[in-house]
Design a protein that fits this description.
The complex is a heterodimer of chains A (about 300) and B (about 500).
Chain A (H helix, E strand, L loop, with lengths): L4 E4 L5 E6 L2 E8 L2 H15 L2 H7 L1 H4 L12 H10 L13 H16 L4 E6 L2 E6 L4 E6 L10 E6 L6 E5 L13 E6 L2 H14 L8 E5 H4 L9 E6 L4 H20 L5 E6 L2 E5 L6 E2 L14
Antiparallel strand pairs in A: 1-2, 2-3, 3-4, 4-5, 5-8, 6-7, 7-14, 8-9, 9-12, 10-11, 12-13
Helix pairs in contact in A: 1-5, 4-5, 5-6, 6-8
Chain B lengths: L2 H5 L1 E3 L8 E3 L9 E4 L2 E4 L6 H7 L4 E2 L36 E7 L2 E12 L2 E7 L11 E4 L2 E10 L2 E7 L1 H4 L4 H15 L4 E5 L4 E4 L6 E2 L2 E2 L8 H12 L5 E5 L4 E3 L4 H5 L12 E4 L2 E3 L33 E6 L5 E6 L5 E4 L3 H12 L6 E9 L1 H5 L5 H9 L4 E4 L2 E2 L1 E2 L5 E6 L9 E3 L3 E11 H6 L7 E3 H6 L28
Parallel strand pairs in B: 6-30, 16-20
Antiparallel strand pairs in B: 1-2, 3-4, 4-5, 6-7, 7-29, 8-11, 8-23, 9-10, 9-12, 10-11, 12-13, 13-14, 14-15, 16-17, 17-19, 18-19, 20-21, 21-22, 23-27, 24-25, 24-29, 26-27, 28-29
The chains are: A alpha+beta (about 300), B alpha+beta (about 500).
Chain lengths: ~300, ~500
């Protein structure tokens, strides 16, 4: 018996693993034998993962530096993922969800012969597509009013291994005001860090319509310490929305030029910008929404 | 908020992260929160302040009544059962809840209603060899006739209770008592029943029966003859003869085919009773609650004198019941009279083996009821089409979300194991009749095709948002009502 919760969803195609703050939905496609094997391997690699991660938690909550010492596999992934972004303040915690997804996804790919696989860790998704395969991914612009606002088709030849989203209303705290920033990248860990930092950049530093509080006043254990995080954003003018989105877009363009991300969509109060020409999202009419397959952010 | 409250921090121990959670905030998982200074579990993605504002339910952390199983509720795993749905009897109006949800891209509809069943009853299987009463004997509750003893099954006695004759066909009191008796049995309560010329028995679904004040532990391993067949090899080298005492068929090793094959010598034993075939005897005693479902306490009372030609002084004999619960070991003295001795260790092991092979005795209660014309009218404007849709497996029937068995033939007559349903699924009306949940699930277009009340279909989310929802975990042994395998159009259809 495992310490974690493990259950196949009623459709028989997806596995749900959960322990503490980690919630994974894993969908595998291939022969029935390989899919079952994938679920077994998922349980094996997830077993004790959180407990090992917690051992390195102190170091993972400190700002990145080249000599940060961590021991666990997932912890090392997190440190590696934030390294290219460390010209500004960032802690390895920015990569936690994506790193867990990557770790589980890559372990399954190594041990099983599948055509498609995704590991969705609360919206941060690691995925694998065999040649010729594709996924259709749903986009949600506002987590407080979850609705599918668009879809992205991802094909195997694009080399996308991770999708992640960030925003001030999500689980983690943000310095910025983006409702959602969704990033496609080589792996989920890098997508996770990039989404966090681009969402931070979608901001209006001097605007009085934004309420901020020190992170530690909300969460004693926050890696952001006394830095101010967004707790409320009032209705902004069209100019303010454009200004904030432009700041975020500039950050996204920089990461795109450096090859750190493959594409990015930024949403703020109903306005959306897309960076990178690959996989332009289709914005859906509400009647089409039920037809979706695959991961939903 | 007082200063002290503001400063109150709860350390969560639900997972290794061990979040320190401030007053009114949730931990990293959003599942546990600091509610008024206490650790509480909150629904996924509902933070405490919002939950409090909206009056959403909060489950206290590990309170005695609601120990949390660790499962989270995933949106597409909701199934609305009919428990507490109410009904619109006489059902000329649409059923109380007609709910749609999307499962694997297919819009599914579940029509949820609580049926009023005046034609209904329970079949009870009681794992015991003890004689409860003669077949057809009346079974009473509080002195009123509520049913009868029906055909026994292998290793078990069967009762059939309820039905219109008792619910509405007898006196007012008989109807009221029958209704209460069925209600209690279906809701998993213990009920005391008396069988005419038989026993007093306490029946509770999923629990061992208590017969004349004694809790039944085990089912018999087999009849006396079967027991000889199963164990003769283990006895052959340790004892000269064995008698397995059983109300149905008492077996004798030395005469039984199994003993003959092992070259067991005749022992000169004489059994009082009607010989069926060699080594198998009917009616060695009257039925009762003693040895092997007979009325005897002294096993030697079923033996005649040993035949002098075949029996020898010192010869050994094991007598044992079909559950291994009763046993005795004897040796013949110089006058060929059996004298009780201590059971040798080798034989003790075989008696234990009989006990081990007896399954735990249990009472199982199956509710049986039929969905009548009026109930079906609440589902569709053309009731017979619903029956046809069920028979064609386009519509899947559940009761409180539990699997049911649908009888072949006309109408929708179903049977369900009450222990697989949510607690307290049943109610009653003073008619008297039982109120039981019943759900019909099908594809939206199949529902339309059978003349469904399309204007009354509600979205699952809207029903879940209603205030009086009781959420229960799914029974692990039941299948998911919406699983495509139940349907003609599913993968195995």
């Amino acid at each position: 018996m495992y310490q974690h919760h493990s259950a196949q969803l009623p459709d028989g195609k997806r596995l749900h693993l959960q322990q503490g703050p980690i919630d994974l939905i894993i969908a595998a496609e291939g022969t029935e034998t390989e899919v079952q094997k994938a679920f077994e391997q998922a349980n094996l690699v997830f077993d004790g993962l959180l407990a090992r991660l917690v051992l390195d938690l102190g170091a993972l909550r400190s700002p990145y530096s080249a000599d940060l010492l961590v021991h666990g596999d997932v912890a090392q992934r997190m440190v590696r993922a934030v390294a290219p972004f460390a010209s500004q303040f960032v802690t390895p915690m920015a990569a936690v969800a994506g790193s867990v997804a990557d770790h589980v996804c890559q372990h399954i790919c190594k041990t099983c012969d599948l055509t498609k696989l995704y590991v969705n860790n609360g919206g941060d998704i690691a995925l694998f597509l065999a040649s010729g395969e594709s996924y259709r991914v749903g986009l949600v612009a506002d987590v407080e009013q979850p609705d599918l606002n668009g879809t992205i088709d991802i094909t195997a030849d694009q080399g996308i291994g991770g999708i992640a989203s960030s925003g001030w209303k999500g689980r983690s705290h943000s310095f910025g005001i983006a409702d959602t920033v969704t990033v496609l990248a080589d792996c989920a860990a890098e997508a996770d860090v990039a989404a966090t930092l681009i969402a931070n950049a979608v901001n209006l530093p001097a605007c009085d319509k934004i309420t901020r509080q020190p992170a530690h006043s909300l969460d004693l254990d926050s890696d952001l310490g006394e830095r101010l995080v967004t707790v409320d954003v009032k209705r902004l003018s069209a100019d303010e929305v454009e200004e904030a989105l432009s700041a975020g877009e500039a950050q996204a363009q920089e990461y795109l030029a450096q090859g750190l991300i493959k594409a990015c969509a930024l949403t703020l109060q109903g306005s959306t910008r897309v960076v990178g020409t690959m996989c332009l999202p289709t914005i859906l009419q509400s009647t089409q929404l039920n037809q979706l397959e695959g991961a939903q952010l | 908020m007082t200063e002290q409250e503001k400063n109150s921090v709860v350390q969560c121990d639900a997972c290794p992260v061990r979040c320190r959670i401030k007053f009114g905030r949730a931990g990293a998982c959003d599942r546990y929160a600091n509610l008024d200074g206490e650790l509480a579990r909150v629904d996924p993605l509902v933070i405490v302040e919002r939950a409090k504002k909206d009056g959403e339910k909060l489950i206290p952390f590990l309170s005695k009544e609601h120990e949390w199983s660790g499962d989270i509720v995933v949106a597409d795993q909701h199934f609305v059962t009919a428990v507490g749905a109410g009904t619109t009897y006489p059902d000329y109006k649409p059923a109380p809840f007609i709910v749609s949800s999307e499962v694997n891209g297919i819009d599914m509809v579940t029509v949820v209603t609580e049926g009023i069943f005046s034609y209904c009853g329970v079949k009870i299987k009681i794992d015991t060899d003890r004689h409860l009463g003669h077949e057809q004997a009346t079974v009473r509750c509080e002195g009123e006739a509520v049913g009868h003893v029906t055909t026994g099954e292998y290793g078990s006695q069967m009762l059939s209770l309820g039905g219109v004759e008792h619910l509405t066909g007898g006196s007012k009191k008989e109807g009221r008592v029958t209704c209460q008796c069925l209600l209690d049995l279906c809701n998993g309560q213990a009920v005391t029943l008396n069988v005419d010329d038989g026993v007093e028995i306490v029946v509770q679904a999923g629990q061992p029966p208590i017969i004349n004040g004694v809790k039944e532990e085990r089912m018999r391993v087999g009849c006396g003859s079967a027991t000889i067949g199963m164990f003769a090899k283990q006895w052959r080298d340790h004892v000269d003869d064995v008698v397995v005492v059983d109300d149905h068929i008492t077996g004798v090793m030395s005469e039984h085919q199994a003993g003959k094959l092992l070259d067991v010598e005749p022992s000169g034993i004489v059994i009082k009773g009607r010989r069926s075939t060699p080594g198998r005897y009917f009616q060695v005693a009257s039925p009762g609650t003693g040895w092997g479902g007979t009325d005897i306490d002294d096993p030697l009372s079923i033996l005649g004198d040993f035949k002098e030609k075949e029996a020898k002084p010192g010869q050994s004999l094991l007598m044992v019941s079909t559950t291994g619960e009763h046993f005795g070991y004897f040796e013949l003295d110089d006058t060929l009279k059996p004298v009780e001795k201590e059971l040798p260790d080798e034989l003790k092991a075989s008696v234990m083996r009989i006990q081990e092979n007896c399954e735990p005795a249990m009472c199982s209660v199956m509710f049986i009821g039929g969905a009548g014309g009026s109930l079906r009218a609440g589902v569709t404007e053309n009731p017979v089409k619903l029956t046809k849709s069920v028979k064609d497996t386009l519509t899947h029937v559940t009761s409180g979300g539990a699997d049911v068995f649908i009888w072949p033939g006309g109408g929708i007559t179903y049977m369900v194991d009450v222990t697989t349903m949510p607690e307290n699924s049943f109610g009653y009306v003073p008619t008297p009749a039982l109120v039981a949940p019943i759900e019909f699930s099908m594809r939206l277009d199949d529902y339309q095709a059978l003349g469904g009340h399309m204007d009354s279909v509600q979205k699952l989310e809207d029903v879940l948002a209603a205030t009086k929802i009781r959420q229960v975990g799914q029974n692990q042994e039941a299948s998911w009502p919406m699983a495509s395998k139940h349907y003609e159009w599913g993968p195995e259809g």
